[in-house]
């Protein structure tokens, strides 16, 4: 190995705790194998992704009683920072995570799961709403996902982010990442973090997360956009954003270029735009330059479950970004993490990464 190629341990030793900050909707993922009667009882399709309503009330407790139930720390942003921490391995607690949970049993499990993933999670705990959950009801190769945001919707800037002990952790970070979903919960928290990053010439990343964010949360989204140093999204989300902004193009490279040119406060860093396209090349733009990065080729029969591929991509990307690596290396790490996750069921990963 040449001297330029440092070992992983050598690389990460430059990393300090809390260097990567994430904030979002924490969900406890509850996975269990169920039968057709269970799906019918709750009116579920074998392959689906829905938000919970009244008729799903008892579902989560019933899942928890299954003999082989598995729990994971979930939610889009928490997944991404968890994967970043997994890629980094040492030291522990490079990733910080803030979000809101309930003072209940599921909340206790979530805290334990975040700790097992070596993420430094500091939750705002309140007793009005229960901890958010996402049930994965598995039948054969099919999975039906039912999400209940509950407490995740209750994050309050004044009650948590503003507290000195918490804000101190924000100040320790160099890279910030928030999924667009959180714009529906606490846009003022997002603005405070984004402005802090900007004032200290640190990196603030945002994910478009879903088409409905560009459609129905346009105002908070465009308020934060001038502070966004790195914008993530997939092709569908990019297309919806372009349509909503009146770009009048569906060419993904052109959309990336236009997003890159949107007003930006911190002129020291040109905005980077990264759009993934499933099995097709990832598009990234810095300045005038649009580059296509091929994903890791995989026999499509090897794919078990593409859920969480986007979150994993972001996690891999952030793990190198926080080590000040090149854009190319960040994207390689993103593709690596996504490639691992799509070959497994749910957003799980092996003990250690094998990425150089
Ligand atoms: N069919 C696939 N073949 C190979 N890689 C894939 C495939 N689907 C997803 N990936 C990997 O996951 C990344 C994100 O996938 P994408 O489908 O854009 O995210 P999401 O659907 O979660 O928003 C891709 O850039 C790629 O690395
Ligand atoms: C999986 O879902 C498909 C339809 O989405 C169905 O045809 C198939 O029978 C299901 N498999 C199992 C094991 O439930
Ligand atoms: C992109 O993400 C959206 C959710 O925001 C999802 O519905 C869609 O299938 C994804 N598109 C691709 C091509 O993976
Ligand atoms: C976030 O960005 C990734 C990568 O660009 C994308 O695939 C994904 O759909 C976006 N949304 C979420 C929730 O990860």
State the main characteristics.
globular; binds adenosine-5'-diphosphate; alpha/beta; binds 2-acetamido-2-deoxy-beta-D-glucopyranose; EC 2.7.1.20; UDP-N-acetylmuramoyl-L-alanine:D-glutamate ligase; 9-stranded mixed sheet; adenosine kinase activity
Secondary structure topology:
Blueprint: H1 8-12, E1 20-23, E2 27-33, H2 36-41, E3 48-51, H3 59-64, E4 70-74, H4 76-88, E5 95-102, H5 105-116, E6 120-126, E7 133-139, E8 142-148, H6 157-161, H7 164-172, E9 175-179, H8 187-199, E10 203-207, H9 211-216, H10 218-224, E11 230-234, H11 235-244, H12 252-260, E12 272-277, E13 280-286, E14 289-293, H13 309-321, H14 327-341
Helix pairs in contact: 4-13, 11-12, 13-14
Bound molecules: adenosine-5'-diphosphate (ADP) and 2-acetamido-2-deoxy-beta-D-glucopyranose (3 copies).
Overview of the molecule:
The protein is of the alpha/beta class and 356 residues long. It has a single domain, classed as Ribokinase (UDP-N-acetylmuramoyl-L-alanine:D-glutamate ligase). 36% of the residues lie in helices and 23% in strands. It has 14 helices and 14 strands. The strands form two sheets. A nine-stranded mixed sheet has the order 6-5-1-9-10-11-12-13-14, with helices on both faces. Helix 4 crosses helix 13 and helix 11 crosses helix 12 (252-260). The longest helix has 15 residues, at 327-341. It is globular and about 55 Å long. The structure holds adenosine-5'-diphosphate and 2-acetamido-2-deoxy-beta-D-glucopyranose (NAG) (3 copies). One 2-acetamido-2-deoxy-beta-D-glucopyranose (NAG) is lined by residues 46-47, 139-140, 142. One 2-acetamido-2-deoxy-beta-D-glucopyranose binds next to strand 11, strand 12 and helix 13.
């Amino acid at each position: 190995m040449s001297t330029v190629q440092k070992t992983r341990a050598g690389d990460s030793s430059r990393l300090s705790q809390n260097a990567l900050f994430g904030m979002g909707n924490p969900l406890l993922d509850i996975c269990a194998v169920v039968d057709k009667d269970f799906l019918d009882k709750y009116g579920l399709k074998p392959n689906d992704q829905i938000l919970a309503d009244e008729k799903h009330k008892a579902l989560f407790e019933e899942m928890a009683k299954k003999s082989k139930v598995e729990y994971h720390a979930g939610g889009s942003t928490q997944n991404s920072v968890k994967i970043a921490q997994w890629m980094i391995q040492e030291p522990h607690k490079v990733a910080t995570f803030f979000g809101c949970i309930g003072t209940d049993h599921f909340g206790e499990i979530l805290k334990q799961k975040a700790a097992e993933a070596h993420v430094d999670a500091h939750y705002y705990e309140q007793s009005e709403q229960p901890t958010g959950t996402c049930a994965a009801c598995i039948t054969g190769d099919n999975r039906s996902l039912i999400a209940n945001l509950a407490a995740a919707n209750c994050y309050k800037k004044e009650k948590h982010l503003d507290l000195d002990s918490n804000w101190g952790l924000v100040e320790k970070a160099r890279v910030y990442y928030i999924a667009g979903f959180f714009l529906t919960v606490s846009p003022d928290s997002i603005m405070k973090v984004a402005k802090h990053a900007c004032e200290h010439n640190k990196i603030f990343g945002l994910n478009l997360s879903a088409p409905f964010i560009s459609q129905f949360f346009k105002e908070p989204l465009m308020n934060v956009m001038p502070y966004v140093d790195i914008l993530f999204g997939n092709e569908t989300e990019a297309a919806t954003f372009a349509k909503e902004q009146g770009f009048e193009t569906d060419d993904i490279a052109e959309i990336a270029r236009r997003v890159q040119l949107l007003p930006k406060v911190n002129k020291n860093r040109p905005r980077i735009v990264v759009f993934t396209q499933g099995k097709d090349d990832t598009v990234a733009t810095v300045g005038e330059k649009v580059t296509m990065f091929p994903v890791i080729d995989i026999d499509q029969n090897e794919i078990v479950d593409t859920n969480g591929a986007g979150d994993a991509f972001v996690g891999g990307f952030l793990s190198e970004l926080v080590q000040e690596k090149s854009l190319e290396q960040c994207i390689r790490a993103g593709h690596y993490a996504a490639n691992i996750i799509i070959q497994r069921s749910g957003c799980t990963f092996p003990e250690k990464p094998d990425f150089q």
